[in-house]
Amino acid sequence: MELQSERNAGPKRETRAERQARTRAELIATAATVFAQRGYEGASVEEIAEQAGYSHGAVYSNFAGKSDLTTKIPGEEANSQTPTKSLTGSYGILS
Questions:
Q1: pTM of the model
Q2: Which residue segment(s) compose the domain that 66 sits in?
Q3: Main-chain phi, psi angles of 44, to 5 degrees
Q4: In the chain, pLDDT over 70 holds for what percent of residues?
Q5: How far apart are CA 92 and CA 61, in angstroms?
Q6: How many other β-carbons are positioned within 10 Å of the β-carbon of residue 89?
Q7: Are 22 and 34 in contact, with CB atoms under 8 Å apart?
């Protein structure tokens, strides 16, 4: 006999940790795109958040700021506190 809870069980809900990991990944991916388009100085936390579909508070609840977010982009120096030339110059991150 099937239990009521088994019949009504829909898709598994994301845990808080899973939601946070998804949010962080989306913000990092969007930041990479915005930095490639505008460069580090031309990009803003507000623009990154808006393009990712989040508030700028979501950025600050996951990262210390723009420079911290930069260090999480694959290919950037993991321990750098300042953006590398690929983000600040005309080279772009995706080149």
A1: 0.70
A2: 16-88
A3: -125, 155
A4: 69
A5: 26
A6: 11
A7: no
Residue 5 lies in a domain: no
Q: How many domains does the chain have?
A: 1
Two structure tokens written together for 75: 């290919």
- Provide mean pLDDT across the span 20-41: 96
User: What does the block give as tokens for 86?
Assistant: 């690929």
Encode pLDDT of 72-87 as tens digits.
Answer: 998 865 434 445 445 5
Give phi and psi for 80, each to the nearest 5. -70, 135
The pLDDT of residue 24 is above 90: yes
Q: Which among 46, 37, 51, 50 is positioned nearest to 66, based on CA atoms?
A: 46
Residues in the chain: 95
Tokens standing for 60?
């600050």
Structure token pair of residue 71: 């260090």
Could you tell me if residue 9 is inside a domain?
no
H helix or E strand, kind and range, residue 9: none
Is 2 a member of any domain? no
pLDDT band at 4 (very low <50, low <70, confident <90, very high): low
